[in-house]
Amino acid sequence: MNGMSDVRLVLRSQELVIEHERVVMASSARGGAPAFGAMGLFWHRLRTRKTLLALTPEELSDIGLSPEQARKEGLKPFWRS
């Protein structure tokens, strides 16, 4: 690893979510489509959720998620945020 603590990884994850929401809101405010577009966003969610389900307990621990949290998120349909 690069020396980042688990707490820092969780905080960075939260920062990325906040930044993504800010970009989406800004593009919506000016009438534009999100960066991915609807289909791109669906594919992104599908791929990342499948990947999340494939992570080991150790990898989940590294990103600050429990197996239950990962399963809950990973089993969401791709059309749900």
Report low-confidence residues grouped into runs of 5 or more: none
Mean pLDDT: 80
Strand content: under 5%
Judging from the principal axes of the Cα atoms, what is the shape?
flat
Number of separate domains: 1
Q: Supply Rg.
A: 15 Å
Distance between the termini: 29 Å
Protein name: DUF1127 domain-containing protein
InterPro entries: YjiS-like
Describe the overall structure.
With 81 residues, the protein is mostly helical. The protein has one domain (6-74). It contains four helices and no strands. It has helices at 6-29, 37-54, 57-62, 67-74. Helix 2 (37-54) runs antiparallel to helix 4 (67-74). It is flat. The chain starts with 5 loop residues before the first helix and ends in a 7-residue tail after the last helix. The model has no long low-confidence stretch (mean pLDDT 80).
